[in-house]
Amino acid sequence: MDEFSPRILPLLWRRSIPARKAVGRPPRLTVDAVVSAAVRIADAEGLEAASMARVAAELSVATMSLYTYVPSRPELVDLMVDEVLWTRGLAGGGGFRERVLRYAERTFAMYRAHPWLAEVSRVRPPVGPGTLAETEYVLAAVATLGLPVRRLNPAATAITAWVTAAARAEAESTLLRRDTGLSTDQWWAQRGELWEDWFDVGAHPTMTRIWNAGAFDRGADEQAQDAYEYGLGLLLDGIERSASVEGDDRVP
Q: Does a structural domain hold residue 2?
């Protein structure tokens, strides 16, 4: 059961809380140090490796002492996710497309640096500064177009979903390559027998036609990038066109 724990909010928003004056001996660690160690481990070895015991060993402390700073592993993962979301540093002005492309570039860079993010569901994200900074940034980008207020969140959500899905898919490919030693192109090459012995040309006429035209000649990663850029361009064109049709209703 996915129950909300009120313990997570002070941890997520710890930098917004005024520091308390230390009484007695200062703590050996900080929440920041615990989260940073967990992220380093996950970057190098995968999310599963970043257990409480492994993080404690990395910090040269007893496992039980780690729970003084972070109450559980699920809460540690939430803190890790929000931390890397925050490190994108989403800020800066410019027009609608400039802002969206900045968001996309930094999101892809984030997933490339932290591919384990692809193993964490973003459906119910940690409600921390990193998550809300993303929401604010994309909403602000869309708001420059003068869309009706009721359209702002759907448009921003569509952009976030498209960019994040593509970045996650690339990170998932990285994880699979790490785990199997095979690139996606090598994986497909191992299945060459499918096309020679099992593929029914008559049942797949459209696939056959574009195959013969060379549409599948590029590698899997290149095709994925082509599809992402094509779809993003159409999405942004559509949002801009909608703004021109529905009039100016800018958020004050």
A: no
Whether residue 187 is contained in a domain is answered as: yes
Q: Provide the CATH number for the domain around residue 157.
A: 1.10.357.10
Structure tokens at 12: 């997520």
Q: Which domain holds residue 210?
A: 89-246
DSSP string, 211-236: HHTTTT-S-HHHHHHHHHHHHHHHHH
Each residue's pLDDT tens digit in the chain (252 positions)?
Answer: 456 677 899 999 998 876 555 555 666 899 999 999 999 999 999 999 999 999 999 999 999 999 999 999 999 999 999 999 999 999 888 999 999 999 999 999 999 999 999 999 988 889 999 999 999 999 999 999 999 999 999 999 999 999 999 999 999 999 999 999 999 999 999 988 998 899 999 999 999 999 999 988 889 999 999 999 999 999 999 999 999 887 666 555
User: Looking at the 3D structure of the chain, how many domains does it have?
Assistant: 2
